[in-house]
Specification:
Elements lengths: L1 E8 L4 E8 L4 E5 L6 H13 L3 E6 L5 H4 L2 H8 L3 E4 L3 H9 L17 E2 L4 E4 L2 E7 L8 E5 L4 E5 L2 E2 L2 E2 L9 H12 L7 E4 L5 E2 H7 L6
Parallel strand pairs: 3-4, 4-5, 5-6, 10-13
Antiparallel strand pairs: 1-2, 2-3, 7-8, 8-9, 9-10, 11-12, 13-14
Length: about 210
């Protein structure tokens, strides 16, 4: 079975996730946002205390708060980040322009292979399904585990809100279509682990999200 651990990191309060297999101890890091040394240590200590073997470093999209921990994870575990090909340009531009935020990502690793929708991420004998969920960014993806009904949705949807679409690659109607046709088609009991804020569920958002009802 797969389980999820959430950390809230960096000055934007982004959610970084570890998805791990409870038996084999294999794990992946999703959206490494660890910015400060104490955040690096919190991530490492959890992994080491549970004797996890981290096998992949995944990004839902390329905005700075979701990739600023990639360099630390690369140095610690030798993992190169993976992202959808439509977000590669944004990824590289985010690194180039990181100094605008007072952050130096010049040594951050560049993805060498890309994530493709309708494929899966194997963790032990379980799998996360890769869903193409654009709108917040052009190449945004989410990771869905149907067996335990949870999705790691990045910045597509939040409790009572949705991702912003005023950044390069964002499109409001595309995001609404993604939520309606991808997220709201999942079972209502599906837990949504978002890129910011607390977890919610598909059923709750369909009933209460003021931006888009199911």
């Amino acid at each position: 079975m797969l389980a999820v651990k959430c950390f809230t990191f960096n000055f934007i309060q982004e959610n970084t996730y570890i998805v791990y297999h409870t038996d084999t101890k294999e794990a992946v890091i999703i959206d490494a946002g660890n910015q400060y040394p104490e955040e690096d240590n919190a991530l490492y200590e959890f992994i080491e205390a549970n004797e996890f073997k981290v096998i992949r470093l995944l990004n839902t999209h390329a905005h700075i708060d979701h990739i600023m921990g990639n360099e630390a994870c690369f140095k610690k575990y030798g993992l190169v980040p993976e992202i959808h090909e439509l977000d590669l340009f944004t990824f590289e531009k985010t690194i180039e322009n990181s100094s605008m935020w007072g952050i130096d990502l010049s040594k951050s690793p560049i993805p060498q292979k890309t994530l493709k929708e309708n494929t899966s991420i194997d963790i032990g004998n379980e799998s996360l399904q890769i869903m193409f969920t654009p709108g917040h960014s052009q190449g945004h993806v989410s990771f869905y585990y149907p067996k335990e009904h949870f999705i790691l949705s990045g910045d597509v949807i939040f409790m009572g809100s949705i991702g912003r679409t005023d950044l390069p690659g964002g499109n409001h109607q595309t995001l609404l279509n993604t939520i309606q046709n991808q997220i709201y088609c999942l079972p209502p009991q599906t837990t949504i682990f978002s890129g910011h804020g607390e977890a919610t569920s598909v059923g709750y958002e369909m009933m209460h999200n003021p931006f888009i009802r199911g």
